[in-house]
Amino acid sequence: MPAKTMIQKGTTYIFPESACMLAIDTKGALVLVEQFRKPRAERTLELPGGVVREGETPQEAAIREFSEETGLNGGKAQFLFTLDLDLSTTLHRTHVFTSKTRDSDAARDAEFQVRRLQINDALRMIQDGTITHAPTVAATLALALDINQGELRGRPIY
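Predicted structure:
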């Protein structure tokens, strides 16, 4: 773990809005990316995502980031929820979307290593601390709840 950073009381760190995509492939697997995160000094498993650029909607950002990071086409993106990641010291809002992707879309180079996990494997990795990225955890748990209820946001499960 990197050295601790002391935060002066009353300081607020402002981050640009971000968006990420919970994509599900034709076999029902979640499409995640594995990447090295310098602040944690380790590799992480996360939803593909990133900064919402000026003039871009969060939905457009989620689709663009998914394509850049995975080399896949996510298709239509449906809004799931918005997270405020830490209101105690930061303003950092992340918008989470869901989409379907096809295996045949893997024609381009991906920015990161793509990992596909079945929902039960992802849930186990959340429980054992392997997956800790807050939007990934929240989206996976929301998906698990929807599967348990037999639907994904009012639609049949993919």
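Summary: The domain at 13-148 is CATH 3.90.79.10 (Nucleoside Triphosphate Pyrophosphohydrolase).
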